[in-house]
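pasting for ref
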Amino acid sequence: MKSVYDVIIKPVITEESMKNIQMKKYTFIVQRTACKQEIANAVEAIFGVKVAKVNTMQVRGQSRRQGYHVGRRADWKKAIVTLTADSKGIEFFESMM
């Protein structure tokens, strides 16, 4: 069984994700094999909030060149977690605004 700390890898801190905080939408990089229910349970357990909805997407790694050699970055999975209206915000993101 996976630990809740294995499911959530790290938060995504971009301009677009910071705009979504006002609508109680938070963005995380998650384990590629994690399903929406596991992501929702992990966010609720770690941050103590109520999750209304989880949207996930597979992100393909970008190709990179180093001189003659061409390689690829790793593929990853992104989850956008929407909290319920009566839930408090996540303090980690709130401190960045």
